[in-house]
Amino acid sequence: DRVFVAGLSAGGAMAATLAATHPSLFAAVGIHSGLPHGIAHDMPSAFGAMRGQGGRAPRRTEGSVRMIIFHGAADATVHPSNAEALVAAAGPALRGTSRREKGRSAGGRAYSRNLVEAADGTPLVESWRIEGAGHAWSGGRPEGSYTDPAGPDASAEMVRFFLQPRG
């Protein structure tokens, strides 16, 4: 009931796969700059999907896990279209009210945030597109590798999303 999984890049793809294949185990998933579950079946199709060149349609699952997604609009490693594919793969979770917000992080990065909520207010899917951000953890410390301190803070936002009360 309170188990969460999150990852960046290949770790994000693994988080998506874990949530898709074990929906009863996870309360929510955080995917940063990752691929949807089932979009690739071998190395060439994985590299194609990373470049935003098709691949298999992402698998939809009836037991969708609540999902928060982050992706940099300038990501040259994993194409930003994969964030849209992750949202599309959420399938049944998209039966809710949608809204879009725009803002700017404390570090100056513009972002758009799309939210889908159930009728009772439970957050189902939240997708962040960060303008100017590449293939890096948004809001990470500058000492780390694959981090972008300009934000927004993906870690804080994922924890907020994970811990939001349901219904």
Automatic annotation (TrEMBL):
MF term (GO), any: hydrolase activity
A single Gene Ontology CC term: extracellular region
Classification via Pfam families: Esterase_PHB
UniProt keyword terms in alphabetical order: Hydrolase, Signal
Residues of the signal peptide: none
InterPro entries noted in UniProt: AB_hydrolase_fold, Esterase_phb, Plant_Biomass_Hydrol_Est
PANTHER family: BLL1128 PROTEIN, UNNAMED PRODUCT-RELATED
Name under which the protein is recorded: Esterase PHB depolymerase
Organism: Paracoccus chinensis
Taxonomy of the source species: Bacteria, Pseudomonadati, Pseudomonadota, Alphaproteobacteria, Rhodobacterales
